[in-house]
Design goal:
Elements (H helix, E strand, L loop, with lengths): L2 H12 L13 E3 L11 H5 L2 E8 L4 H20 L7 H8 L5 E7 L17 E11 L8 E10 L8 H15 L4 E7 L3 H10 L3 E2 L17 E7 L5
Parallel strand pairs: 5-6
Antiparallel strand pairs: 1-2, 2-3, 3-4, 4-5, 6-8, 7-8
The structure holds coenzyme A.
Coenzyme A (COA) binds next to β5, α5 and α6.
């Protein structure tokens, strides 16, 4: 694709919100009851339902803080021991980027039905996805993509289907926005996430992932770039 076409596609995607066309029932989540009380804490036992909501940047400060905190809890140690290091101010900037879009899993436990519209900011964030519509490669753009910058589920609510559901919504929105791929970056050491994306969500190592070029400059990268194509084989 020509650069002009790629930019047109990403610009159009940035101005649309296909989330509103998704059926509400698809955005409701029932969190399964704990298989054994000893395996899960009180929080999880109390929560029975949640909902997915879409937000464009800027996120309400309370929701932003919860996302940042969740990121730190899940990924802090991994980032600290990575080549990138942990820089929470940098992460905050990333989460406040103009093009940032979010899917938040919000707890319905706080009598959300009784809350006036617009007070979602007081809800508890159980998980979130941060994604943006952009070119696949800054230096050599080939196609428009939905780039997943973050996928985080609270540890007490992992393995309950929330991550898969969020990925399904990210992919559906990307498809409706005519993006050619969903792309993401994952640390090699993050074997759980790697297994989730590769085995469960059917992602593949992208052609631009550093592991395709290792040896050429003798660099050892500690991450992979994964992708899933959304266009039919030609
Ligand atoms: C990785 C993560 C996003 C997955 O989300 P999740 O809500 O725990 O995963 P789900 O419950 O939706 O799993 C969906 C399916 O994937 C499977 N799965 C989960 N982890 C897997 C793994 N390591 N290997 C293979 N399959 C896996 C589950 O068994 C489930 O299968 P099922 O639908 O047949 O039951 C979540 O665990 C997480 O937030 N981890 C910490 C943060 C992180 O690493 N984020 C990714 C950064 S790139």
């Amino acid at each position: 694709m020509k650069l002009k076409q790629i930019k047109q596609a990403t610009d159009a995607a940035k101005h649309q919100n296909h989330f509103v066309s998704l059926p509400p029932a698809f955005l409701k989540l029932d969190i399964p009851a704990a298989p054994s009380p000893s395996e899960l804490d009180e929080d999880r036992k109390q929560i029975t339902s949640a909902r997915i909501q879409h937000f464009a940047s800027p996120l309400h400060p309370n929701l932003l803080d919860q996302c940042l905190q969740l990121f730190e809890e899940n990924m802090g140690n991994m980032y600290q021991s990575s080549s990138w290091g942990l820089d929470l101010e940098e992460k905050r900037k990333e989460l406040t980027h103009d093009d940032a879009r979010f899917l938040l899993v919000l707890s319905d436990n706080d009598d959300a039905d009784d809350l006036p519209t617009g007070t979602e900011s007081s809800s508890q964030v159980l998980g979130f996805a941060h994604f943006r519509y952009e070119e696949d490669d800054e230096d050599d753009p080939k196609v428009p993509v939905s780039y997943l910058y973050e996928l985080q589920i609270q540890s007490t609510h992992q393995k309950a289907g929330l991550g898969k559901h969020l990925m399904n919504v990210v992919e559906l929105l990307a498809l409706k926005s005519h993006m050619h791929k969903v792309m993401l970056t994952v640390f090699k050491i993050n074997t759980k996430a790697m297994g989730f994306y590769l085995n469960k969500m059917k992602y593949e190592i992208d052609e631009c992932s550093p592991s395709n070029f290792e040896g050429e400059e003798n660099e050892n990268f500690d991450y992979e770039i994964l992708s899933k194509s959304l266009v039919g084989a030609k």
